[in-house]
Amino acid sequence: xxxxxWSRWFSTSLAAIAFVLLSxxxxxxAAKAPLRVLVVTGGHDYPTSFYTLFEGYDDITWHHAxxxxxxxxxxxxxxxDALVLYDMSTEISEEEKKNLVEFLESNKGLxxxxxxxxxxxxxxxxxxxxxxxxxxxxPAGGMPASTYLHDQEILVEPxxxxxxxxxxxxxxxxxxxxKGMWISPKVTVLLKTNNPTSDSAVAWVSPYEKxxxxxxxxxxxxxxxxxxxxxxLVHNAILWSxxxxxxxxx
Length: 250
Ligand SMILES: [Zn+2]
What we know:
Blueprint: H1 3-27, H2 29-32, E1 35-40, E2 60-65, H3 68-71, H4 76-79, E3 82-85, H5 94-104, E4 109-113, H6 124-131, E5 133-134, E6 147-158, E7 171-179, E8 182-183, E9 188-193, E10 201-205, E11 212-216, H7 222-225, H8 228-241
Parallel strand pairs: 1-2, 1-3, 3-4, 4-11
Antiparallel strand pairs: 5-8, 6-7, 6-9, 9-10, 10-11
The structure holds zinc ion.
């Protein structure tokens, strides 16, 4: 090949490669854009190690609302792809409810972590149909109050194959347990334990159909937040809830 032909061949190839790359980018902007996650706290203490759960990934960007009132403003549905709740809130205005319901009816993602299962005990639709479980702060419906115990050594195992559990086999984790919660018979249990101070189900997918909803009981403190398996679990749950992991359907 002469120098000129070689040079022409080279520039043509380069242009072709550039064209293919640019076309791929143009065809799939949504696939490349990081998920927009809103993390909601407030009403319960937590160590700042919690924030590390959302750091170190290029497929999510996260924003922080320090209360549910700050979180559930108008525009919630347009601004975010997934919600992560780590708050403990009882009060919610009708306007905030409306924004939250609109978000959930738009095929979005919801990940409820640890003490956020105590949110809105008076809003039955919320805990029964959306979250699929309730921590009972007092006896209700013939059930005694739920209990908690800190600093438990918990061995957690997958209960069923699921995209959220990809690269997760079993976890040994130091964390707080909850026992005696009301758990909907319609949930799909993801993780289970036989720790006697805990309910068997420690993570599940709720039966709610308009968005993908995941509850993870684990996550009280630093020993969970910095656990590689827990990090993977929460990251996978966020991706799956937003339709970015596994098949589109549940
Ligand atoms: Zn806790």
